[in-house]
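Researcher: Next sequence.
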Amino acid sequence: MTVGGILGDPHYAELKQYILDHTGLEYYADKDEDLATRVSRRTSIRNAADCRAYLSMLAESLSGQTEMDCLVGELTIGETYFFRQRAHFDLLRETIVPDLLARNAGSRQMRIWSAGCATGAEPYSLSILLHRDFAAQIAGWDISILATDINVEFLARAREGKYAAWALRETPDETRDSCFIREGKQWLLRSEYRKTVEFQYRNLVNEGASGTDGCSFDLIVCRNVIIYFSREQMYRTVSEFHRRLEPGGWLLVGHAEPNVEMFQAFETVSRTDTTAYRKAAGQTNFSAPAVWHPSEIVWEPQIAKAREAEAEQTPVAAPVHDLTVHDLYDARVLADGGNWQAAIAATERMLAADPLNAEAHFTRGQILQNCGAQDEARDEFRRSIYLNRAFAIAHYHLGTSLESNQEREAARKAFRNVVQLLSDTVYDEPVPHGEGMTAGELVDLAQLHMELQTR
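Model: Next structure:
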């Protein structure tokens, strides 16, 4: 079938809903042409006459899952690399793993789940870290890493353990040479690091965490996965993660993931460069809350409009006075703790003292964005960019907010600005206000969003 034929098919809407319901890839909810392009490839291969025929194939009890797996391969992107988001691995090395070693000293076991593992770089990175940095401490321990994904092709490649040099771009040469065997243009991970990891197919939407054989985990890592889900599905998934964690267990999500209200059942552990979430000791589980409405936060839009007018009349080159890191940190800590009114009030005080501070506008925008107040958040990001044209992370957050509002061309422009601003920056240089993200990682994220828009 052609793309036009699929979009014009009377059963397309039914097919689309079936795909979204079974994959959770809400990203395609407003991208019919992109979805139809991918469906067209599979209908051509399967010789499906129309959408109804292809829907019947997907719903078939025996072969439907196989075909859905093939379709998912068209819909997902698996580009990843070892030790991605260095700040997370620093936190694992310095805080999380030592905490789990002390907490589990009696049982001498540690269970980790890498959810949405793609081609395996993430769980293998965890294995390398444990066996190299904590070899003496985990001797005699039962260490297991469950790695799951919805894409069976990715899982097959992950089990093979072979990677191109590009996947090792953030891996120190000494680690690469010690942990991998070079085979032509590829690098094979040594067996001692592969044997700890078990790869399994899991669909977070249909199975949630219930497909993990009922076991609980000390650490769950799920980075840049739930950003593709609807907000309701995000809540359900995070609720399942909380349920499957041992009391005192840890959750790591990606820098691009929503936070604050989404993870309110967790303790927030913040460092200057990253954030993690921990299930309180003695806590059991919680139910996913109803969809939270940003109207629960009260702010004064007339003040924001007045500030915007003032900023418009001020030259871009006007000096910007720095707020102390302590003030910005306080606002974020208040937001992380669910103290919305206090966090908003903190940013109000900052901006009352210095209405032309780009960092304060950006911080306020982050809080509003995480609360779901996207219109107000976009205004704040635009103000911060107006005051500091080179504010790369503000361009990125503006892009994600525009994307959620289906303003695709404007979002693409914002992501292009990120790439252009950081094109001459060293890959591993930290991004100001990026919570540990490096310039290279932010460029990768921006390019990922642009790639998803064109697929």
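Model: The chain is about 50% helix and 10% strand. The chain has a mean pLDDT of 81.
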